[in-house]
Amino acid sequence: MEGARGSGADAATAPYGRAVAYREKLPRRWTVATVAVLTGWVAYQGSVLLPDDSTLWYVMLGLSAFFALVLNAVPISKRVYHRIRLRDGQLTVGRETIAVDSLTAESIREASEQPTDAEFAAALASRSPEELTRLRQASRATPPPRLVGGGWSVPLGMEQIVVETVRGEALLIATHDREALLDALTRARQV
C-alpha cells in the first residue's frame, strides 16, 4: 500500500508534462518489403547454386546485404536522427533531448496553426513572382531554424514543425504524425 501512496504523491508533486508519454512509430513497410525480396532472392540463388557453387552464393549473399543497406539507408537514418519520444517532461528527437518546459507554449500553439507542407507549397504556387521575391528577401533576413536530432534537412516523407525555446532559439522538428506530436506537446506543456 505504501508504494501506491508514494507514487500518487510523486505524481501530484511532479512538474507538468511528466504524465504525458508519446512515442512516434516510424513506417516499416519499405524495410520489410526490401528485406523480404532480397531474402527470397538469396534463398532462390541458394537453391540453384548450393552446394556446388558455394563461393558464388556467398558473394550473392554479401551483395544482397549491401543492397539491403543501400536501399534502407534513409529509414535507418530516420531511426537514428528523427525518432521522437516524449516522456517524463523530456522531448527526445534522435540523439538530442530537450526539456518540454524550455519550449514556449505560444510557439507550440503557433505550430499547430502553421500550414502543412502541402498547404504551404500550394500557397507558394499561387503567389506572383514579385511576392515570391519579397518573401525570399524577408526569409534571408531571419536565420533558419535548427534541425533537432541532426541531419542536413527534413527527410522525404516527413512533415516539419517549428517551435521556439524560452531563449528564443527556433527549432525544426521532423515528424511523421504532426497532429499527434503537437497534441502531446500541448498536453505536456499545460499545467
Which SSEs are present, and which pair or pack?
Blueprint: H1 2-13, E1 22-23, H2 29-49, H3 54-71, H4 73-81, E2 84-87, E3 90-93, E4 96-99, H5 105-113, H6 117-125, H7 129-141, E5 146-147, E6 159-164, E7 170-175, H8 178-189
Parallel strand pairs: 5-7
Antiparallel strand pairs: 1-2, 2-3, 3-4, 6-7
Helix pairs in contact: 2-3, 5-8
* Percentage of residues in DSSP E strands: 5-15%
The helical percent reads 40-55%
Shape descriptor reads elongated
Mean pLDDT value: 86
Q: In order across it, which strands form the biggest sheet?
A: 1-2-3-4
Supply Rg. Answer: 23 Å
Gap from first CA to last CA: 28 Å
Largest sheet, described in full?
A: 4 strands, antiparallel
Q: Count of DSSP E strands? A: 7
What's the structural domain tally?
1
Structural class: alpha+beta
Walk me through this protein's architecture.
The protein is of the alpha+beta class. The chain has one domain (16-189). The chain has eight helices and seven strands; from the N terminus they run αβαααβββαααβββα. The chain has helices at 2-13, 29-49, 54-71, 73-81, 105-113, 117-125, 129-141, 178-189; strands at residues 22-23, 84-87, 90-93, 96-99, 146-147, 159-164, 170-175. A four-stranded antiparallel β-sheet has the order 1-2-3-4, with helices on one face. Strands 5-7-6 form a three-stranded mixed β-sheet. The longest helix has 21 residues, at 29-49. The radius of gyration is 23 Å and the shape is elongated. The two termini are 28 Å apart. This is DUF3093 family protein. It comes from Streptomyces capillispiralis. Keywords: Membrane, Transmembrane, Transmembrane helix. The chain crosses the membrane at residues 30-50, 56-77.
